[in-house]
Every structure is written in structure tokens, then in C-alpha cells.
Design goal:
11 helices, 291 residues, alpha/beta, globular, Purple Acid Phosphatase, chain A, domain 2
């Protein structure tokens, strides 16, 4: 059984400030799937395949290689309804955030691509209006994002914080800002919940705060009890995919370790596609099973 909150996706329910939803609708959705959450093997809806991609952080080289691999697989799966979910943090730290945003926008025009908002998108967007947030953004990889939009490094280095805001207004297209603002807070598909950072244990889905979904760490990661769904998340870097009974973390450190991960979900099966950069060479690695 599937329930749609978003207008365009019959398999996925999303929570987005721009989508008309109510707490009652989310509570009904949670109740519908709560019984499934205790299954040992969570599943996505029949006839679908989901490619869930972890934090990209400006590594457009890894992202483009992963897009190509997924599209090659898609050619051999015409009978399936293929869905892509990006878990946020498209920007910052890596060198090509602007290109990542452009490629994500272009991919969504030709395939069903749903995106959840990460804390780095939040900082980026708020930096246009707050110099305090802009300072915080710069300390956490925002410099690379601003430079990726064509701001000369010498001009960046000489600019005051107010001048940097002006440069961002000048260089970052409104279309990109609107695109980043459109991301969902969470996405639900079958027995899975996709969110950037995680959710707070013991809090109903409709009562989860936006801050927790973008920023939470220890309280979520250390919780060993059941969640209403199996949670797939990014935000926290792991050397390898962190597969637990109640959650799976797939941020494998694209900007730090040179490894970008896609978790592939079909029925109850779980496998990996990873694009890996070693000494400037990108390869594709696959793992047929995830615990």
C-alpha cells in the first residue's frame, strides 16, 4: 500500500514546507506503515527500484560517474519504476558545488529525482540574508561553494563579509536558490524513511523538528531501538556503509575519502554502487549485498 503526500510521486511521501501537508496526514501515514517497521527485511514498493545517494559535497566528478552508472543500469530495467533520492549536502567542501547543483537540476528534468535538504543547503540559503550565518557557512566549506560560482579567489580574499553577500547575490542564480529551497525534509517509501541526518528517538514523525532532521547525531546514531521505519541517512561520515538493524548511514566521505555511495533498494534486496577516486582516477565498485 502506498500513500502520496507529494503531488507527483505515487510511491513516495514527502514532508516539504512547500507541500500542503498536515500533522494528521503524517500521523495517518506513520500508523499505516508502523506494523511493517518491525520486519527484519524492510522493502520498497513492488515494481520500484530506489537509488539513494549520500552526501556529494561538491564532488561533481564522483557524482557524474555515479549518474552514468545508474543510467546504464536503467537501460536494462525498463520494466521497473526507477527512483533516485539524494540525501542532501550537495554543496560545500568539495570544489564543484555549482556543477553538482546544475547536474542535479538537469537529472531531475529527465528522471524522478527526489532530494532531502541537508544542513549545508540550509546554511547556504540563510547566508544570503545573515552575515552571522555566512561566517559559519564559510568555516564549514562555504568558501569552496562561493568560488565554484565563478567568484575570483583574489576578489574573495579581499572582500568584507558584506561584500561576499553581494557577490553571492550577483553570482548564484535565483534558479539555483529556488531549487535548493524546494528540497524535502523527509521522504518515505514502503518501509524506508530517507532523511539527511536522522530523527529524534521517541518523537512522532509529524513532530520531528527540521533542525533535528538536518543536524542530529549522537541521540539518533546511538539509539538501538526501533524507529517507525528503517532510516537511511547521510550527514555523519563512515569509512564504510554503516548498516544497523534500525538505520543505514551512507555518507562515505565523498569530499574527504573520495568515495560516493548509492544504496540500491529493490523489494527487500540492498546493494551498493560506489564511485571511488584514487590518485585522480575514478572507478566504480559494486557490492551485491548489504547486511
Amino acid at each position: 500500500m502506498s500513500v502520496a503526500i507529494g503531488p507527483s510521486n505515487p510511491y513516495v511521501a514527502s514532508r516539504n514546507p512547500g507541500v500542503a501537508t498536515t500533522p494528521a496526514m503524517l500521523k495517518t501515514l506513520a500508523n499505516l506503515f508502523r506494523a511493517k517497521s518491525v520486519q527484519a527485511a524492510p522493502a520498497v514498493p513492488d515494481g520500484t527500484r530506489f537509488y539513494v545517494i549520500g552526501d556529494i559535497h561538491g564532488r561533481n566528478d564522483l557524482f557524474e560517474a555515479l549518474i552514468l552508472e545508474i543510467e546504464e543500469e536503467a537501460k536494462k530495467a525498463a520494466e521497473l519504476d526507477l527512483r533516485v533520492v539524494l540525501l542532501g549536502d550537495l554543496v560545500d567542501r568539495g570544489p564543484e558545488s555549482a556543477l553538482v547543483v546544475a547536474n542535479a537540476r538537469a537529472w531531475r528534468e529527465r528522471r524522478q529525482v527526489d532530494i532531502v535538504a541537508g544542513n549545508h543547503e540550509q546554511m547556504f540559503l540563510e547566508s544570503f540574508d545573515s552575515t552571522q550565518v555566512l561566517r559559519h557557512f564559510i568555516r564549514h566549506g562555504g568558501r569552496e561553494t562561493i568560488l565554484s560560482y565563478g567568484v575570483p579567489e583574489a576578489r574573495y580574499n579581499e572582500a568584507t563579509i558584506e561584500e561576499l553577500q553581494d557577490l553571492m547575490q550577483e553570482r548564484v542564480p535565483q534558479e539555483d536558490r529556488d531549487f535548493l529551497s524546494s528540497f524535502d525534509e523527509m521522504i518515505i517509501a514502503g518501509d524506508y524513511l530517507f532523511v539527511h541526518a536522522g530523527i529524534r528517538p521517541g518523537v512522532e514523525l509529524e513532530e520531528q523538528s527540521r533542525e533535528d532532521m538536518m543536524w542530529i547525531r549522537e541521540q539518533f546514531l546511538d539509539h538501538e531501538g526501533h524507529y517507525p521505519y528503517h532510516v537511511v541517512h547521510g550527514h555523519t561520515i563512515f569509512e564504510e556503509v554503516d548498516a544497523r538493524p534500525n538505520r543505514t548511514g551512507i555518507d562515505t566521505g565523498a569530499y574527504r575519502n573520495g568515495r560516493l555511495t548509492a544504496l540500491v533498494l529493490e523489494g527487500t534486496s540492498r546493494r551498493l554502487i560506489q564511485t571511488v577516486e584514487t590518485n585522480g582516477v575514478i572507478t566504480v565498485e559494486k557490492k551485491d549485498r548489504v547486511a
